[in-house]
Write a structure and sequence with these properties.
Structural class: alpha/beta
Number of helices: 19
Distance between the termini: 34 Å
Helix content: 40-55%
CATH superfamily of the largest domain: Mur-like, catalytic domain
Strand content: 5-15%
Largest sheet: 8 strands, mixed
Number of strands: 16
Shape: globular
Length: 494
């Protein structure tokens, strides 16, 4: 018993040191600022070369990486949701899954999941220090270490190979062409979610530029699935698919699927999520059918086959519409059009941070919210135009708007690391409050916001519950969840 206590203590201390060491590497926000100042094609090529070099130093060759069976997903909106749906469908079919996503909400271990669960503290800690030491020992100069996201990408590849997952569902970080994940050479299939303007300082100022960057993950002799896109973006995707000898297919409408004994329709009512679900169905089905030999094209193109049976080495390959439906309906992806019922009101959590996603968020909130005082909790990163994001939110007629940095305000290592840029965020919050005008308040952290809501707003009854919309940043969503649902159970005791 004493030995187990010592092991837990050592693991906890080592885990905390690992998190601090990880944050000492260049953060994603720092990378974006530097990239905006010094954006050149030569430096972009160096990013991928560096990733391959660091991967090799950590003990993995690109040939070893080729043994991973990968589904690779890029896009502006809905990447995470699409990957989560895909992972859930494949796990429901009995496959061992690995899932890499970003950003995390409450703790960094969420980014690397095995069979739907974030890796444990011990698993993270052991592998982190093993790789960190290998890279540190091989440094050629003082700052010769991968950035935060690049390090996590390398860690993810190690874990997925070690765990021998059947399939790795990998979400692109930023862009596609020069993203760290794009050292993958032979994915089974590729997904492109909805494309809009975002990260323009890094990816380009037009939708065509964005599409060019996202289609950078297209690979020869691979199938790429895309949601319907605006004409300019679709033209680029089609051209790039031809150039890269990649088959491009546009997904069908969610309404076209024929369900059997189980249907996910009641759980997925929003049109945006239905589109993401359709993309997930196509990718998951393509991956499963790739396990079979000589699958007829007519079968591959069908979306209405309830059960498709093929054989590979005497193993039955089955695609079941019932399992697809259960996978979609049971998928849990916090912080994206999520509703949590609490004692102080109903929380509507959506990390929308572009004009298009804010508009979708408003439509969802209008459809799902009920009678009661409407409250807004908002923040966004420093590089985004708050005026354009806040203007459409006015149509919801909030009783009060809270502007707060992306920090929970509770004692935890992850919140401590997230609080490093709080002064800069506070300035942005003051600006957002001035833009909003009356009935707005700036507070230091999410804990203060929730205390203010509890103190000042009394609910008459269940028919008039407070309707609390949290949006503008997934990091803000994470700060709220760190208090009301820290284990991401999709329920709250708050």
């Amino acid at each position: 018993m004493w030995n187990n206590f010592i092991k837990r203590y050592v693991c906890t201390a080592s885990y905390e040191a690992a998190i601090k060491a990880l944050h000492s590497l260049q953060s994603n926000s720092s990378y974006l600022k530097l990239a905006a100042k010094n954006n050149s094609q030569q430096s972009d090529f160096c990013k991928l070369f560096d990733t391959k070099q660091y991967l090799f130093r950590s003990g993995i060759t690109v040939e070893k990486l080729d043994t991973l069976s990968v589904i690779h997903v890029a896009g502006t909106k809905g990447k995470g949701s699409t990957c989560a749906y895909t992972e859930s469908i494949l796990r429901e079919h009995g496959f061992k899954t690995g899932f890499f996503s970003s950003p995390h909400l409450v703790n960094v271990r969420e980014r690397i999941r095995i069979d739907g669960q974030p890796i444990s503290k011990m698993h993270f800690t052991q592998n982190f220090w093993k790789i960190y030491k290998q890279l540190e020992d091989a440094k050629e100069y003082e700052s010769d270490m991968p950035s935060y996201f690049k390090f996590l990408t390398i860690l993810m590849f190690h874990l997925f190979l070690e765990e021998q997952v059947d399939v790795a569902i990998i979400e692109v970080g930023i862009g596609g062409l020069y993203d760290s994940t794009n050292i993958i050479r032979n994915p089974v299939c590729i997904g492109i979610t909805s494309l809009r303007l975002d990260h323009t300082s890094l990816l380009g100022n037009t939708l065509e530029d964005i599409a060019y960057q996202k289609s950078g993950i297209f690979k020869s002799k691979t199938v790429a699935f895309s949601v319907p896109q605006l004409p300019g973006a679709m033209h680029v995707l089609e051209k790039r698919a031809i150039e890269r000898n990649c088959k491009l297919r546009i997904i069908p409408s969610f309404d076209d699927y024929k369900w059997e004994n189980v249907s996910p329709i009641l759980q997925i009512t929003n049109k945006v999520q239905q589109q993401n679900a359709s993309l997930a169905i196509q990718m998951a089905t393509e991956w499963i059918l790739s396990k079979a030999n000589k699958v007829p094209n007519v079968l591959r193109n069908s979306i209405n086959n309830a059960v498709c049976k093929k054989y590979e080495e005497n193993t039955e390959i089955i695609v079941s519409m019932d399992k697809i439906a259960v996978g979609l309906a049971s998928c849990k992806w916090p912080g994206r059009m999520q509703i949590l019922r609490s004692s102080v009101g109903d929380f509507f959590l959506d990390g929308a941070h572009t004009i298009e996603s804010i508009e979708c968020c408003i439509s969802w909130f209008n459809d799902m919210s009920s009678k009661g005082k409407k409250l807004l909790i908002f923040n966004t990163s420093s590089g985004r135009d708050s005026t354009k994001l806040l203007r459409p939110l006015r149509s919801l007629h909030f009783y009060k708007a809270y502007f707060v940095p992306n920090t929970a305000g509770i004692k935890s290592l992850d919140d401590e690391m997230n609080s490093l840029s709080i002064d800069e965020q506070k300035i942005k919050c003051e600006m957002n409050s001035k833009i909003w005008g009356m009935n707005s308040i700036v507070l230091n952290n999410v804990f203060e916001v929730l205390e203010d809501i509890k103190k000042n707003l009394k609910q008459k009854d269940d028919c008039e519950r407070n309707q609390i919309l949290v949006t503008g940043s997934l990091h803000l969503i994470g700060a709220v969840l760190a208090i009301i649902d820290p284990n991401l159970t999709m329920k709250t005791q708050f």
